[in-house]
Amino acid sequence: MTTADSPDAKPDADATAAARSNAGGPRYAGLLIALHWLIALGIIGLLALGLYMVGLPKGLPVKATLINLHKSLGLTVFLLVLLRIVARAVLHRPPLSPMPPWQRAAARTTQGLLYVGMVAMPLAGYLGSSFNRYGTRFWGILLPKWGWDDAHLRELFFGIHEAIGYALIALIALHVAGALKHQWIDRDNLLARMLP
User: Fold this and answer.
1) Helices and strands, number each (H, E), in the chain
2) Which pLDDT score, from 0 to 100, does residue 22 have?
3) Which of 3, 10, 18, 62 has a CA between 20 and 30 Å from the CA of residue 170?
4) Cβ pair 171, 114 in contact under 8 A
């Protein structure tokens, strides 16, 4: 029996690297991975900032600063989401790992709803800002207003913006729970496909 055939033999470095790269199946393209984590951090930050700033009293000078920061960050993340949608259409995405049909349907539904929320939420916020006298500044640049000063429409769009925010919190929790289930219960290392 040769050394390579011995049960105590260690696999060579190339075989170990290949095994690691195949853990969880094929990986996402680097751009998709980078956009996923940038958008995830941005959305979590925006949700935290949004929940914090709405609790601040009106007229507080820092509240206006935080609202403008929230708008600029929100539109930046929105542009990254649009870029990610284009990148998903162009770049190769690995297929889902083998899983029961209900899990596959749940994963696709959750991802689809996340994308709907990531597009609809900033649009609702921007429209809400269009129906007040302040408008929206994107990193200091005043953007066009698509409406007039109308308290009813402003509250309608801000209400939609807020409702989508809470829905996104639930969807993100579901998305993270699914990823952790695959990592710790199924042990299929699916999470490795999206890690940097």
Assistant:
1) 5, 2
2) 45
3) 62
4) yes
Helix (H, G, I), strand (E, B) or coil at 87: helix
Task: Name the residue among 190, 175, 158 with its Cα closest to residue 26.
Answer: 190
Task: Determine which helix (DSSP H) or strand (DSSP E) holds 25, and give its type and residue range.
Answer: none
CA 79/CA 49 separation, integer angstroms: 19
Contact between 39 and 56 under an 8 Å Cβ cutoff? The reply is no
| Three-class secondary structure of residue 69 per DSSP | helix
Q: d(Cα 71, Cα 153) in Å, to the nearest integer?
A: 18
Give the per-residue pLDDT at 96: 79
Render pLDDT for 175-184 as a digit per residue (tens, 0 to 9): 999 999 988 9
What is the phi/psi pair of residue 141, to 5°? -95, 120
pLDDT at 12 over 70: no
CA distances 178 to 32, 43, 78, 82, Å, are: 19, 18, 24, 24
Long-range contacts of 92-99 (CB under 8 A, 24+ apart): 92/29, 93/28, 93/29, 93/32, 94/25, 94/26, 94/27, 94/28, 94/193, 95/25, 95/26, 97/24, 97/25, 97/182, 97/188, 97/190, 99/186
Question: Under a CB-based contact definition with an 8 Å cutoff, are residues 186 and 24 in contact?
Answer: no
